[in-house]
Please model this.
Amino acid sequence: MVDEIKIIDRIKNGDRYAMDMLIKTYYQSVFAYFYCHTGSREVSMDLTQEVFIKVITYIEGYKNKGRFKAWLFTVAANHLRNHWKHQRVHHTENELKGNMIYIDSDDMSEKLDLKQALLRIPHDQREPIILKYYYGFTTKEISEILAEKEPTIKGRIRYGLEKLKKILRGEPDGQSR
Amino acid sequence: MDNQDDSFISELFEKIEIPAVSADEIEFVCDTAANYLPNTQKKTSFWEIILLELSTVSLLFWAICAAIMVFSAIMIRYASLEISAIAVIAVISPIPLLLCIIELLKNRNPAVTELEKVCKYNITQLYVAKLMIGLFCNLVFLSFITVFAAGRDIDVVRIMLTGSTVMFLLGFIALIVTCKIGKSLPVMGVLAGWILISSVFISQDNYLVEIISNIQLMGLVAFFIISAVLFSYYLYVFAKQIQFLRIGDIEV
Model:
């Protein structure tokens, strides 16, 4: 944490080496975040680059309050929202058309691709689930990242997980069965 | 969802396959981001930014300010004594500053924001410079009208204080709207609303003008100081927020 603050201070002073370190540390995490949402390597790489440009551009405004990672994901979450807005894409419908997944067992199966199941739940439920289970953020941190109230986030996670469970059990989009 | 399911989901997440990104690809991102490092921006003095901004203020803005100034001066100087100079100054005094804020917001779109990232100057300084120009222009505007009004045996100090107080107060409200909403339309609403309401009040009833005229000079000074402090405080808040302000479709 202290090292991170030092690195950020050095970046604020224009230290290229510190910036490289920061980007290399968090690149894969941010890329994975976008990949879980878009399912596309190219789009995720573009979004990741844009997020790091934003972070470096606005790094002087970062006040070392709370975890840097949470701030980074706040920028990433806002960027993703802008991306959807600009693309006018309803990812759950368009990206997964004809890509239905079924499994025979009543139990959840590890064979099923969770990434594809995730893409079939609504974006506002998918986002907190990814932040909680993939990145280990607390509900409070997620509520700050997504600028939503904590009970709202808890509700979205609960409903999202229920849908996810149904999809993983083989009920398409958790609607039937 | 019980703990067993919770841990099952966590385990599934650990098994998600994320495509690898090569070191060269990450290096390319580093090279691109390096162009945006804070002190790769050239250190430019605030006065240089003000001069730069002065050269980019639209002709329409200057033309509107000049037209309002001449019109107001003629109104005060040559109209019959039924028109109160204080009423005229109260109505028109915030207009140049509000026009400046509207111009500032209207020019800030996603394409401009992208360009700003590679600018050789600090974005916060740039927007504060724009507002300072508006403020200075407004003060010149008020001084000019006051000089014209002086010929009508009117208390020059009183008219200047009234105009400046209204300017700072409306500027303060416009900055609150800018910080909260970040769009030019509500600021236009503030401007239009002020002109409409103040015109109606002042044209129908001289009661308000009489109240202003009867306020002790020290009282006017106090109002002026309060409004100037409120405006300055919100200018500071605005300057701090501008980089993270959601304006139009932009969200950082």
User: Anything to note?
Assistant: The first helix of chain B runs from residue 3 to 14. The two ends of chain B are 34 Å apart (CA to CA). DSSP finds twelve helices and no strands in chain B.
